[in-house]
Write a structure and sequence with these properties.
By secondary structure, this protein is mainly α.
């Protein structure tokens, strides 16, 4: 695996894991409902799906999410749920941080891949997508080629509408 692949895959995995903390925080501010219980199930399923055996803080995160889910099902008050959701969020951040540490340990410095907002720089993203998703980019180019002949017709139609209105 190249350094770019490691950075992109770790960034994607961390973004998928971030949803766990966000959902728990959202559930602290909402009342129990069947839809919220479905979200709890999806959080537990996401934890099982996203965490790998090599994640160091895996047990901490699963324990924090399980405690939060049990408290939510028992109808704890909002203050206790907020404390538990902050523990879940902290555990998510620990897992994400540990993933970046392992990438840095294996591949070296990775900060030059990111802009000041924490997003992967555009030229690195394009290089990654050209290699791994060329079909999607090809379809985007096909769409652009198909729409170009209609642009002059749309401009003329807009001018006619503007003149006669």
């Amino acid at each position: 695996m190249t350094k770019l692949e490691a950075v992109m895959l770790t960034k994607r995995a961390n973004n998928r894991l971030k949803i766990v903390g966000d959902t728990c925080y959202h559930l602290t501010r909402s009342k129990p409902s069947p839809e919220n219980y479905k979200q709890l199930k999806s959080v537990l399923a996401r934890i099982d799906r996203e965490l790998k055996s090599k994640d160091v803080f895996r047990e901490e995160l699963t324990e924090a999410v399980t405690i939060f889910c049990d408290a939510y099902k028992q109808g704890e008050n909002e203050e206790n749920l907020r404390v538990l959701s902050s523990k879940v969020y902290e555990a998510v951040r620990n897992v994400q941080h540990q993933r970046w540490i392992s990438v840095k340990k294996k591949h070296g410095k990775v900060s030059h891949y990111f802009n000041r907002f924490g997003q992967v720089r555009k030229h690195y993203r394009q290089r990654f997508y050209l290699k791994y998703e060329p079909e999607r980019l090809k379809n985007d180019n096909e769409y652009a080629k198909n729409i170009i002949p209609y642009i002059p017709i749309l401009v003329v139609a807009g001018l006619v509408y503007w003149l006669f209105s």
